[in-house]
Write a structure and sequence with these properties.
The protein has helices at residues 2-7, 27-43, 121-124, 143-160, 180-188, 201-204, 206-229, 237-250, 254-264, 297-300, 302-318, 321-329, 343-357, 375-387, 411-416, 473-548; strands spanning 56-65, 93-101, 106-114, 132-136, 167-171, 191-195, 453-456, 459-462, 470-472. The chain is an alpha/beta fold. The protein has 2 domains: 24-72 and 85-284 and 330-434, no CATH class; 516-549.
Length: 549
Protein backbone atom coordinates (compact mmCIF):
# COMPACT_ATOMS: atom_id res chain seq x y z
CA UNK A 1 0.00 0.00 0.00
CA UNK A 2 2.87 2.39 0.77
CA UNK A 3 4.42 1.89 -2.66
CA UNK A 4 1.02 2.25 -4.36
CA UNK A 5 0.43 5.61 -2.65
CA UNK A 6 3.93 6.69 -3.65
CA UNK A 7 3.18 5.93 -7.31
CA UNK A 8 -0.20 7.69 -7.05
CA UNK A 9 0.26 10.83 -4.93
CA UNK A 10 -3.24 12.00 -5.83
CA UNK A 11 -4.64 9.10 -3.74
CA UNK A 12 -4.78 9.06 0.08
CA UNK A 13 -6.22 6.98 2.92
CA UNK A 14 -9.47 8.35 4.29
CA UNK A 15 -12.00 7.13 6.84
CA UNK A 16 -15.27 6.67 4.97
CA UNK A 17 -18.66 7.41 6.51
CA UNK A 18 -20.93 4.45 5.90
CA UNK A 19 -24.15 5.53 4.18
CA UNK A 20 -26.76 3.04 3.01
CA UNK A 21 -27.71 3.28 -0.64
CA UNK A 22 -31.26 4.33 0.16
CA UNK A 23 -29.96 7.05 2.53
CA UNK A 24 -27.58 8.62 0.02
CA UNK A 25 -28.90 12.01 -1.13
CA UNK A 26 -28.49 13.28 -4.64
CA UNK A 27 -28.41 16.72 -6.19
CA UNK A 28 -31.36 15.87 -8.42
CA UNK A 29 -33.49 14.81 -5.45
CA UNK A 30 -32.69 17.97 -3.47
CA UNK A 31 -33.42 20.23 -6.43
CA UNK A 32 -36.72 18.43 -6.97
CA UNK A 33 -37.58 19.03 -3.30
CA UNK A 34 -36.96 22.78 -3.71
CA UNK A 35 -39.10 22.73 -6.86
CA UNK A 36 -41.96 20.88 -5.12
CA UNK A 37 -41.99 23.25 -2.14
CA UNK A 38 -41.97 26.31 -4.37
CA UNK A 39 -44.77 24.91 -6.56
CA UNK A 40 -46.88 24.09 -3.52
CA UNK A 41 -46.57 27.62 -2.16
CA UNK A 42 -47.40 29.08 -5.58
CA UNK A 43 -50.48 26.88 -5.95
CA UNK A 44 -51.80 28.07 -2.58
CA UNK A 45 -50.87 31.72 -3.26
CA UNK A 46 -48.59 32.04 -0.22
CA UNK A 47 -45.28 32.44 -2.07
CA UNK A 48 -44.74 35.83 -0.37
CA UNK A 49 -43.72 33.95 2.82
CA UNK A 50 -40.38 33.14 1.15
CA UNK A 51 -39.49 36.84 0.99
CA UNK A 52 -39.90 37.60 4.71
CA UNK A 53 -37.21 36.13 7.03
CA UNK A 54 -39.33 36.76 10.14
CA UNK A 55 -41.87 34.22 8.82
CA UNK A 56 -39.44 31.35 8.11
CA UNK A 57 -38.57 29.06 11.05
CA UNK A 58 -36.57 25.91 11.72
CA UNK A 59 -37.17 23.65 14.72
CA UNK A 60 -35.07 20.72 15.94
CA UNK A 61 -34.13 19.00 19.19
CA UNK A 62 -30.68 18.10 20.46
CA UNK A 63 -29.21 16.43 23.55
CA UNK A 64 -27.11 18.21 26.17
CA UNK A 65 -24.88 15.96 28.28
CA UNK A 66 -24.11 16.79 31.90
CA UNK A 67 -20.51 15.59 31.63
CA UNK A 68 -18.05 17.51 29.41
CA UNK A 69 -16.97 15.62 26.32
CA UNK A 70 -13.31 15.20 25.32
CA UNK A 71 -11.80 17.26 28.12
CA UNK A 72 -8.21 18.39 27.62
CA UNK A 73 -6.20 18.03 30.85
CA UNK A 74 -2.56 18.12 31.91
CA UNK A 75 -0.98 14.70 32.49
CA UNK A 76 2.43 13.07 32.54
CA UNK A 77 3.84 12.23 29.14
CA UNK A 78 4.21 8.55 29.93
CA UNK A 79 0.62 8.28 31.18
CA UNK A 80 -1.46 6.55 28.51
CA UNK A 81 -4.77 6.16 30.35
CA UNK A 82 -6.06 9.55 31.48
CA UNK A 83 -9.42 9.59 33.22
CA UNK A 84 -11.58 12.34 34.70
CA UNK A 85 -13.99 11.57 37.52
CA UNK A 86 -17.47 13.03 37.38
CA UNK A 87 -20.34 13.05 39.86
CA UNK A 88 -22.87 12.61 37.05
CA UNK A 89 -23.16 9.71 34.66
CA UNK A 90 -21.40 10.27 31.35
CA UNK A 91 -24.59 9.12 29.57
CA UNK A 92 -26.96 11.48 31.41
CA UNK A 93 -28.45 14.07 29.07
CA UNK A 94 -31.62 16.07 28.51
CA UNK A 95 -33.43 16.89 25.28
CA UNK A 96 -33.85 20.54 24.31
CA UNK A 97 -36.01 21.73 21.41
CA UNK A 98 -34.53 24.82 19.76
CA UNK A 99 -36.41 27.05 17.31
CA UNK A 100 -35.21 30.04 15.34
CA UNK A 101 -36.16 32.23 12.41
CA UNK A 102 -34.25 33.28 9.31
CA UNK A 103 -34.16 36.80 10.81
CA UNK A 104 -32.06 35.53 13.74
CA UNK A 105 -34.83 35.45 16.35
CA UNK A 106 -34.79 32.62 18.90
CA UNK A 107 -38.07 31.13 20.15
CA UNK A 108 -38.23 30.17 23.86
CA UNK A 109 -36.73 26.66 24.00
CA UNK A 110 -38.37 23.53 25.35
CA UNK A 111 -36.60 21.34 27.92
CA UNK A 112 -37.83 17.76 28.26
CA UNK A 113 -37.39 15.77 31.48
CA UNK A 114 -38.12 12.06 31.99
CA UNK A 115 -41.23 12.14 34.19
CA UNK A 116 -44.46 10.16 33.90
CA UNK A 117 -46.56 12.62 35.90
CA UNK A 118 -46.16 16.15 37.24
CA UNK A 119 -42.69 17.70 37.14
CA UNK A 120 -41.43 18.75 40.61
CA UNK A 121 -41.85 22.43 41.43
CA UNK A 122 -38.15 22.78 42.26
CA UNK A 123 -37.33 22.12 38.60
CA UNK A 124 -40.01 24.26 36.98
CA UNK A 125 -39.25 27.16 39.32
CA UNK A 126 -35.61 27.11 38.15
CA UNK A 127 -36.57 27.51 34.47
CA UNK A 128 -36.27 31.06 33.08
CA UNK A 129 -39.48 32.97 32.56
CA UNK A 130 -41.15 32.23 29.24
CA UNK A 131 -39.27 28.99 28.59
CA UNK A 132 -41.20 25.77 28.08
CA UNK A 133 -40.82 22.71 30.29
CA UNK A 134 -42.08 19.31 29.21
CA UNK A 135 -42.09 15.69 30.22
CA UNK A 136 -42.19 12.29 28.57
CA UNK A 137 -41.68 8.77 29.83
CA UNK A 138 -38.20 8.51 28.30
CA UNK A 139 -37.24 12.19 28.22
CA UNK A 140 -37.20 12.10 24.40
CA UNK A 141 -39.43 14.02 22.05
CA UNK A 142 -42.81 12.49 21.25
CA UNK A 143 -45.87 13.61 19.31
CA UNK A 144 -47.79 14.83 22.39
CA UNK A 145 -44.93 17.02 23.61
CA UNK A 146 -44.28 18.47 20.14
CA UNK A 147 -47.96 19.19 19.55
CA UNK A 148 -48.40 20.90 22.91
CA UNK A 149 -45.26 22.99 22.34
CA UNK A 150 -46.53 24.14 18.94
CA UNK A 151 -50.02 24.91 20.25
CA UNK A 152 -49.25 26.31 23.72
CA UNK A 153 -45.84 27.96 23.26
CA UNK A 154 -44.75 28.49 19.66
CA UNK A 155 -48.03 29.79 18.24
CA UNK A 156 -48.78 32.19 21.17
CA UNK A 157 -45.19 33.47 20.97
CA UNK A 158 -45.55 34.18 17.24
CA UNK A 159 -48.83 36.01 17.86
CA UNK A 160 -47.28 38.03 20.68
CA UNK A 161 -44.32 38.96 18.44
CA UNK A 162 -46.77 40.16 15.74
CA UNK A 163 -45.39 37.71 13.19
CA UNK A 164 -47.42 37.85 9.99
CA UNK A 165 -49.23 34.64 9.09
CA UNK A 166 -48.94 32.29 7.28
CA UNK A 167 -45.49 31.26 8.43
CA UNK A 168 -43.16 28.53 7.13
CA UNK A 169 -41.84 25.95 9.60
CA UNK A 170 -39.13 23.49 8.50
CA UNK A 171 -38.71 20.30 10.54
CA UNK A 172 -37.03 16.96 9.96
CA UNK A 173 -39.02 13.84 9.09
CA UNK A 174 -39.31 12.37 12.58
CA UNK A 175 -42.76 10.95 13.21
CA UNK A 176 -43.21 13.05 16.37
CA UNK A 177 -43.06 16.21 14.23
CA UNK A 178 -45.74 15.19 11.76
CA UNK A 179 -48.55 13.64 13.79
CA UNK A 180 -52.07 14.24 12.58
CA UNK A 181 -52.89 16.58 15.48
CA UNK A 182 -49.86 18.75 14.75
CA UNK A 183 -50.60 18.91 11.02
CA UNK A 184 -54.25 19.74 11.67
CA UNK A 185 -53.40 22.48 14.16
CA UNK A 186 -50.80 24.00 11.82
CA UNK A 187 -53.29 24.09 8.95
CA UNK A 188 -55.89 25.74 11.18
CA UNK A 189 -53.44 28.39 12.42
CA UNK A 190 -51.81 28.97 8.99
CA UNK A 191 -48.49 27.40 9.89
CA UNK A 192 -47.09 25.72 6.76
CA UNK A 193 -45.32 22.63 8.12
CA UNK A 194 -42.67 21.39 5.69
CA UNK A 195 -40.51 18.30 6.17
CA UNK A 196 -36.94 18.68 4.99
CA UNK A 197 -35.52 16.40 2.35
CA UNK A 198 -34.97 12.96 3.98
CA UNK A 199 -31.53 12.16 5.37
CA UNK A 200 -30.26 15.64 4.44
CA UNK A 201 -30.52 17.51 7.73
CA UNK A 202 -26.71 17.71 7.93
CA UNK A 203 -26.74 19.99 4.86
CA UNK A 204 -30.29 21.43 4.84
CA UNK A 205 -31.22 22.10 8.49
CA UNK A 206 -29.96 25.55 9.61
CA UNK A 207 -29.75 24.60 13.28
CA UNK A 208 -27.58 21.56 12.52
CA UNK A 209 -25.43 23.41 10.00
CA UNK A 210 -24.64 26.64 11.85
CA UNK A 211 -26.17 26.92 15.33
CA UNK A 212 -25.74 23.73 17.37
CA UNK A 213 -21.92 23.60 17.10
CA UNK A 214 -21.25 27.01 18.74
CA UNK A 215 -24.11 26.39 21.13
CA UNK A 216 -22.61 23.09 22.32
CA UNK A 217 -19.20 24.74 22.64
CA UNK A 218 -20.68 27.46 24.84
CA UNK A 219 -22.47 24.78 26.87
CA UNK A 220 -19.18 22.89 27.44
CA UNK A 221 -17.47 26.07 28.63
CA UNK A 222 -20.31 26.91 31.01
CA UNK A 223 -20.36 23.32 32.26
CA UNK A 224 -16.62 23.34 33.03
CA UNK A 225 -16.96 26.69 34.77
CA UNK A 226 -19.81 25.44 36.97
CA UNK A 227 -17.91 22.26 37.89
CA UNK A 228 -14.85 24.30 38.82
CA UNK A 229 -16.83 26.73 40.97
CA UNK A 230 -18.75 23.93 42.74
CA UNK A 231 -15.78 21.61 43.29
CA UNK A 232 -17.05 18.94 40.88
CA UNK A 233 -20.43 18.62 42.60
CA UNK A 234 -23.27 16.70 40.98
CA UNK A 235 -25.43 18.72 38.59
CA UNK A 236 -29.08 18.31 39.51
CA UNK A 237 -32.04 18.72 37.19
CA UNK A 238 -32.85 22.01 38.87
CA UNK A 239 -29.39 23.32 37.85
CA UNK A 240 -29.82 22.43 34.16
CA UNK A 241 -32.05 25.28 32.93
CA UNK A 242 -30.04 28.13 34.55
CA UNK A 243 -26.84 26.69 33.06
CA UNK A 244 -28.46 26.44 29.64
CA UNK A 245 -29.61 30.06 29.86
CA UNK A 246 -26.06 31.16 30.66
CA UNK A 247 -24.75 29.14 27.71
CA UNK A 248 -27.17 30.91 25.36
CA UNK A 249 -26.26 34.32 26.77
CA UNK A 250 -22.59 33.41 26.49
CA UNK A 251 -22.87 32.65 22.77
CA UNK A 252 -21.44 35.25 20.46
CA UNK A 253 -23.19 36.16 17.21
CA UNK A 254 -26.33 34.11 17.84
CA UNK A 255 -28.34 36.06 15.27
CA UNK A 256 -25.57 35.87 12.68
CA UNK A 257 -25.28 32.10 13.15
CA UNK A 258 -29.00 31.60 12.51
CA UNK A 259 -29.03 33.92 9.49
CA UNK A 260 -25.96 32.24 7.97
CA UNK A 261 -27.46 28.81 8.60
CA UNK A 262 -30.63 29.62 6.66
CA UNK A 263 -28.55 31.16 3.87
CA UNK A 264 -26.16 28.23 3.61
CA UNK A 265 -29.04 25.72 3.53
CA UNK A 266 -30.81 27.66 0.79
CA UNK A 267 -33.96 28.24 2.87
CA UNK A 268 -33.60 32.02 2.94
CA UNK A 269 -33.11 33.26 0.34
CA UNK A 270 -34.94 30.21 -1.02
CA UNK A 271 -32.40 29.02 -3.56
CA UNK A 272 -31.43 25.45 -4.47
CA UNK A 273 -28.07 26.71 -5.81
CA UNK A 274 -26.95 27.83 -2.34
CA UNK A 275 -26.06 24.27 -1.28
CA UNK A 276 -22.58 22.87 -1.86
CA UNK A 277 -23.40 19.84 -3.99
CA UNK A 278 -19.73 18.88 -4.18
CA UNK A 279 -20.13 17.43 -0.68
CA UNK A 280 -22.88 15.06 -1.83
CA UNK A 281 -21.81 11.45 -2.50
CA UNK A 282 -21.59 10.67 -6.21
CA UNK A 283 -23.33 7.53 -7.55
CA UNK A 284 -20.01 5.80 -8.35
CA UNK A 285 -17.78 7.45 -5.73
CA UNK A 286 -16.82 4.27 -3.91
CA UNK A 287 -13.44 4.16 -2.13
CA UNK A 288 -11.17 1.23 -2.85
CA UNK A 289 -11.55 -1.35 -0.12
CA UNK A 290 -8.44 -1.97 1.96
CA UNK A 291 -9.85 -5.22 3.31
CA UNK A 292 -10.84 -8.48 1.72
CA UNK A 293 -14.20 -8.73 0.03
CA UNK A 294 -16.99 -9.87 2.31
CA UNK A 295 -20.67 -10.10 1.38
CA UNK A 296 -22.49 -6.87 2.13
CA UNK A 297 -25.72 -6.63 4.06
CA UNK A 298 -27.56 -5.83 0.81
CA UNK A 299 -26.19 -9.00 -0.79
CA UNK A 300 -27.31 -11.06 2.20
CA UNK A 301 -30.79 -9.58 1.93
CA UNK A 302 -31.11 -10.32 -1.79
CA UNK A 303 -33.09 -13.58 -1.35
CA UNK A 304 -35.47 -11.82 1.02
CA UNK A 305 -35.97 -8.99 -1.49
CA UNK A 306 -36.61 -11.53 -4.25
CA UNK A 307 -39.34 -13.14 -2.16
CA UNK A 308 -40.93 -9.77 -1.42
CA UNK A 309 -40.79 -8.80 -5.09
CA UNK A 310 -42.39 -12.10 -6.10
CA UNK A 311 -45.13 -11.54 -3.53
CA UNK A 312 -45.74 -8.04 -4.90
CA UNK A 313 -45.99 -9.34 -8.46
CA UNK A 314 -48.48 -11.99 -7.40
CA UNK A 315 -50.52 -9.40 -5.53
CA UNK A 316 -50.62 -7.04 -8.54
CA UNK A 317 -51.84 -9.89 -10.73
CA UNK A 318 -54.78 -10.42 -8.38
CA UNK A 319 -55.85 -6.78 -8.80
CA UNK A 320 -57.80 -5.59 -11.81
CA UNK A 321 -55.92 -3.21 -14.14
CA UNK A 322 -58.29 -0.35 -13.23
CA UNK A 323 -57.83 -0.87 -9.50
CA UNK A 324 -54.04 -1.21 -9.82
CA UNK A 325 -53.90 2.00 -11.85
CA UNK A 326 -56.00 3.80 -9.20
CA UNK A 327 -53.73 2.52 -6.42
CA UNK A 328 -50.63 3.82 -8.20
CA UNK A 329 -52.21 7.21 -8.81
CA UNK A 330 -52.98 7.65 -5.10
CA UNK A 331 -49.82 6.13 -3.64
CA UNK A 332 -48.45 9.59 -2.70
CA UNK A 333 -51.73 10.68 -1.09
CA UNK A 334 -51.98 10.47 2.68
CA UNK A 335 -55.70 9.71 2.60
CA UNK A 336 -57.38 7.15 0.34
CA UNK A 337 -60.11 8.89 -1.63
CA UNK A 338 -61.29 5.91 -3.67
CA UNK A 339 -64.09 3.44 -2.95
CA UNK A 340 -64.57 2.72 0.72
CA UNK A 341 -64.53 -1.04 0.24
CA UNK A 342 -60.97 -0.80 -1.16
CA UNK A 343 -59.55 1.18 1.78
CA UNK A 344 -57.91 -1.70 3.63
CA UNK A 345 -56.57 -3.24 0.42
CA UNK A 346 -55.05 0.09 -0.65
CA UNK A 347 -53.18 0.68 2.62
CA UNK A 348 -51.92 -2.91 2.63
CA UNK A 349 -50.75 -2.56 -0.98
CA UNK A 350 -49.08 0.82 -0.29
CA UNK A 351 -47.19 -0.48 2.77
CA UNK A 352 -46.00 -3.52 0.84
CA UNK A 353 -44.74 -1.26 -1.93
CA UNK A 354 -42.98 0.93 0.64
CA UNK A 355 -41.25 -2.11 2.12
CA UNK A 356 -39.96 -3.20 -1.29
CA UNK A 357 -39.34 0.06 -3.17
CA UNK A 358 -38.90 2.44 -0.24
CA UNK A 359 -41.12 5.32 0.86
CA UNK A 360 -42.17 7.86 -1.77
CA UNK A 361 -40.27 11.14 -2.00
CA UNK A 362 -43.26 13.14 -0.83
CA UNK A 363 -46.76 12.62 0.52
CA UNK A 364 -49.57 14.99 -0.41
CA UNK A 365 -51.81 15.87 2.51
CA UNK A 366 -54.12 18.57 1.10
CA UNK A 367 -54.18 22.34 0.75
CA UNK A 368 -52.31 23.73 3.78
CA UNK A 369 -55.31 25.41 5.38
CA UNK A 370 -58.08 22.89 4.65
CA UNK A 371 -59.34 20.63 7.41
CA UNK A 372 -59.17 16.85 6.88
CA UNK A 373 -62.59 15.58 7.82
CA UNK A 374 -64.47 12.29 7.84
CA UNK A 375 -63.47 8.76 8.71
CA UNK A 376 -60.16 9.20 6.93
CA UNK A 377 -59.06 11.59 9.67
CA UNK A 378 -59.45 8.87 12.28
CA UNK A 379 -57.28 6.54 10.23
CA UNK A 380 -54.56 9.15 9.81
CA UNK A 381 -54.76 9.93 13.53
CA UNK A 382 -54.33 6.33 14.60
CA UNK A 383 -51.66 5.56 12.04
CA UNK A 384 -49.56 8.57 13.07
CA UNK A 385 -49.90 7.74 16.77
CA UNK A 386 -49.01 4.08 16.23
CA UNK A 387 -45.69 5.12 14.68
CA UNK A 388 -44.74 7.52 17.47
CA UNK A 389 -43.58 4.63 19.65
CA UNK A 390 -40.80 3.78 17.19
CA UNK A 391 -38.02 5.81 18.80
CA UNK A 392 -35.42 4.63 16.30
CA UNK A 393 -37.35 6.08 13.38
CA UNK A 394 -35.39 9.32 13.25
CA UNK A 395 -36.10 10.23 9.64
CA UNK A 396 -38.67 9.36 7.05
CA UNK A 397 -38.25 9.34 3.30
CA UNK A 398 -40.57 12.16 2.42
CA UNK A 399 -39.76 15.54 1.05
CA UNK A 400 -42.97 17.39 1.70
CA UNK A 401 -45.59 17.42 4.45
CA UNK A 402 -44.55 14.11 5.93
CA UNK A 403 -46.91 11.70 7.67
CA UNK A 404 -45.68 8.11 7.25
CA UNK A 405 -48.07 5.34 6.29
CA UNK A 406 -49.33 2.89 8.92
CA UNK A 407 -47.77 -0.45 9.71
CA UNK A 408 -49.36 -3.45 7.97
CA UNK A 409 -49.94 -5.25 11.27
CA UNK A 410 -52.09 -2.41 12.64
CA UNK A 411 -54.73 -2.17 9.90
CA UNK A 412 -57.56 -3.88 11.74
CA UNK A 413 -57.03 -1.71 14.82
CA UNK A 414 -56.37 1.55 12.98
CA UNK A 415 -59.48 1.32 10.82
CA UNK A 416 -61.78 0.62 13.76
CA UNK A 417 -60.63 3.44 16.04
CA UNK A 418 -62.10 6.91 16.21
CA UNK A 419 -60.20 10.12 16.75
CA UNK A 420 -61.03 13.53 18.08
CA UNK A 421 -59.87 16.76 16.52
CA UNK A 422 -58.49 19.49 18.77
CA UNK A 423 -60.61 22.61 18.76
CA UNK A 424 -58.92 25.72 17.40
CA UNK A 425 -59.04 28.51 19.95
CA UNK A 426 -58.18 32.16 19.50
CA UNK A 427 -54.92 32.10 21.45
CA UNK A 428 -54.10 28.72 23.00
CA UNK A 429 -55.24 25.36 21.76
CA UNK A 430 -56.31 22.67 24.18
CA UNK A 431 -53.58 19.98 24.28
CA UNK A 432 -54.28 16.76 22.44
CA UNK A 433 -55.95 14.06 24.48
CA UNK A 434 -55.91 10.40 23.54
CA UNK A 435 -59.24 8.67 23.11
CA UNK A 436 -58.58 6.63 26.25
CA UNK A 437 -58.54 9.76 28.41
CA UNK A 438 -61.65 11.15 30.02
CA UNK A 439 -62.66 14.47 28.47
CA UNK A 440 -62.80 17.33 30.94
CA UNK A 441 -63.85 20.94 30.87
CA UNK A 442 -61.08 22.94 29.13
CA UNK A 443 -59.50 26.09 30.50
CA UNK A 444 -56.75 28.51 29.46
CA UNK A 445 -54.05 26.18 30.79
CA UNK A 446 -55.17 23.21 28.72
CA UNK A 447 -55.79 19.79 30.22
CA UNK A 448 -55.81 20.88 33.87
CA UNK A 449 -58.73 19.28 35.63
CA UNK A 450 -59.96 17.71 38.82
CA UNK A 451 -59.51 14.00 39.45
CA UNK A 452 -61.00 12.05 36.55
CA UNK A 453 -63.73 9.52 37.32
CA UNK A 454 -64.15 6.34 35.29
CA UNK A 455 -67.40 4.37 35.61
CA UNK A 456 -66.88 0.69 36.34
CA UNK A 457 -70.16 -1.25 36.49
CA UNK A 458 -72.56 0.62 38.77
CA UNK A 459 -69.87 2.38 40.78
CA UNK A 460 -67.38 5.15 40.05
CA UNK A 461 -63.67 4.46 40.18
CA UNK A 462 -61.10 7.21 40.70
CA UNK A 463 -58.39 7.41 38.06
CA UNK A 464 -55.05 9.16 38.20
CA UNK A 465 -54.95 12.82 37.25
CA UNK A 466 -53.38 13.50 33.84
CA UNK A 467 -50.98 16.45 33.62
CA UNK A 468 -49.83 18.43 30.62
CA UNK A 469 -46.85 17.26 28.60
CA UNK A 470 -45.58 20.81 27.94
CA UNK A 471 -46.21 24.20 29.53
CA UNK A 472 -44.27 27.39 30.15
CA UNK A 473 -42.64 28.00 33.53
CA UNK A 474 -45.49 30.39 34.36
CA UNK A 475 -48.01 27.77 33.26
CA UNK A 476 -46.49 25.17 35.58
CA UNK A 477 -46.57 27.72 38.41
CA UNK A 478 -50.29 28.21 37.82
CA UNK A 479 -50.72 24.43 37.74
CA UNK A 480 -49.04 24.16 41.13
CA UNK A 481 -51.15 27.01 42.52
CA UNK A 482 -54.28 25.37 41.20
CA UNK A 483 -53.10 22.06 42.64
CA UNK A 484 -52.60 23.66 46.04
CA UNK A 485 -56.04 25.24 45.81
CA UNK A 486 -57.57 21.89 44.93
CA UNK A 487 -55.68 20.33 47.82
CA UNK A 488 -56.97 23.00 50.20
CA UNK A 489 -60.48 22.54 48.86
CA UNK A 490 -60.24 18.80 49.43
CA UNK A 491 -58.94 19.34 52.96
CA UNK A 492 -61.70 21.85 53.69
CA UNK A 493 -64.27 19.49 52.23
CA UNK A 494 -62.86 16.72 54.40
CA UNK A 495 -63.07 18.97 57.47
CA UNK A 496 -66.66 19.85 56.59
CA UNK A 497 -67.54 16.18 56.23
CA UNK A 498 -65.92 15.45 59.61
CA UNK A 499 -67.83 18.35 61.20
CA UNK A 500 -71.07 17.15 59.63
CA UNK A 501 -70.47 13.65 60.97
CA UNK A 502 -69.71 15.06 64.43
CA UNK A 503 -72.84 17.21 64.35
CA UNK A 504 -74.94 14.25 63.23
CA UNK A 505 -73.40 12.18 66.00
CA UNK A 506 -74.20 14.88 68.57
CA UNK A 507 -77.76 15.15 67.29
CA UNK A 508 -78.13 11.38 67.42
CA UNK A 509 -76.73 11.23 70.97
CA UNK A 510 -79.04 14.08 72.05
CA UNK A 511 -81.99 12.27 70.55
CA UNK A 512 -81.00 9.09 72.36
CA UNK A 513 -80.63 11.06 75.62
CA UNK A 514 -84.10 12.57 75.22
CA UNK A 515 -85.59 9.18 74.50
CA UNK A 516 -83.88 7.75 77.59
CA UNK A 517 -85.19 10.62 79.76
CA UNK A 518 -88.66 10.07 78.36
CA UNK A 519 -88.50 6.35 79.19
CA UNK A 520 -87.29 7.16 82.70
CA UNK A 521 -90.16 9.59 83.24
CA UNK A 522 -92.64 7.02 82.02
CA UNK A 523 -91.18 4.44 84.39
CA UNK A 524 -91.47 6.87 87.34
CA UNK A 525 -95.11 7.64 86.49
CA UNK A 526 -95.88 3.96 86.16
CA UNK A 527 -94.36 3.28 89.57
CA UNK A 528 -96.27 6.19 91.11
CA UNK A 529 -99.56 4.92 89.69
CA UNK A 530 -98.77 1.44 90.93
CA UNK A 531 -97.92 2.83 94.35
CA UNK A 532 -101.27 4.67 94.48
CA UNK A 533 -103.23 1.59 93.42
CA UNK A 534 -101.64 -0.64 96.10
CA UNK A 535 -103.14 1.05 99.28
CA UNK A 536 -106.58 1.18 97.66
CA UNK A 537 -106.43 -2.53 96.88
CA UNK A 538 -105.37 -3.33 100.47
CA UNK A 539 -108.28 -1.24 101.89
CA UNK A 540 -110.78 -3.04 99.71
CA UNK A 541 -109.41 -6.40 100.80
CA UNK A 542 -109.72 -5.42 104.49
CA UNK A 543 -113.29 -4.26 104.03
CA UNK A 544 -114.20 -7.56 102.39
CA UNK A 545 -112.68 -9.47 105.33
CA UNK A 546 -114.64 -7.39 107.89
CA UNK A 547 -117.85 -7.92 106.02
CA UNK A 548 -117.40 -11.68 105.95
CA UNK A 549 -116.77 -11.82 109.68
Amino acid sequence: MRRFLKRHPEQAKRTANNIAKKRAITEAGVREWFHNVNDHLLQNHVEDVLTDPTRIFNMDETAFFLVPRKQRVLAAKDCKAVQALSANSDKENYTVLISGSAAGNLVPPLILFPYKSRIPASITNSVPKGWAVGRSDSGWMNSDAFYEFISAVFYPWAVKQNVKFPILLFVDGHSSHTSFETVEFCKTKKIILVSLFPNATHVMQPLDVAFFAPFKKSWQEELNKWRFENNGAMISRADFAPLLEKAIDRMANKEASLINGFRKCGLYPFDANALDYELFPKPFDRPSSLTENVPSADDCQAPEMDRNLHFMQMMNKKLTPEKLSLFREQRNNLIWSGPVEDTTMFYFWRNTMDEIEGLPEFIIIDAPFVMIEGDHASFADDSANSLNNEATNTTEDSSFINVPGPDVSDFSNNLSHDSEKPEAEAELCEPYQETTRVETEPNHLGNISNTHMGVVGNRQKKTKRKFLAVATSEGWAEIYIQGEQEKMEKENAKKRRIEERENKKKIRLEEQRRKLEARKQKEVLRKQKKALKKPAAAKNTKQKQNTSN
